[in-house]
Amino acid sequence: MRWSLYGVPQGSVLRPILFVLYVADVLQLVYDHGLMSHAYADDTQILGIRCPSESEALQNLVFDCLDAVGSWMAANRLLLNNDKTEAL
Length: 88
Hints:
- The chain has helices at 14-32, 55-75; strands spanning 36-40, 43-47.
- The protein has 88 residues and is α+β, with helices and mostly antiparallel strands.
- It has a two-stranded antiparallel ribbon.
């Protein structure tokens, strides 16, 4: 078994808990943009509800939030996978 000076071993019961603690700021960042989020493991959904007449404003808000999340992730040595990111 190979030991590491940092982190926890793969498969450790602490791994998911520590990950959630590490990325908890992302959920607050989404909330600060006036949106909601749903997180499960390493997946996060960003949700926004507006009237149909405000759909363009919502789209701009979601894209601004995604930019902020991407910047936060880059600053915290994480990568937002653009191939798996989609807006509906």
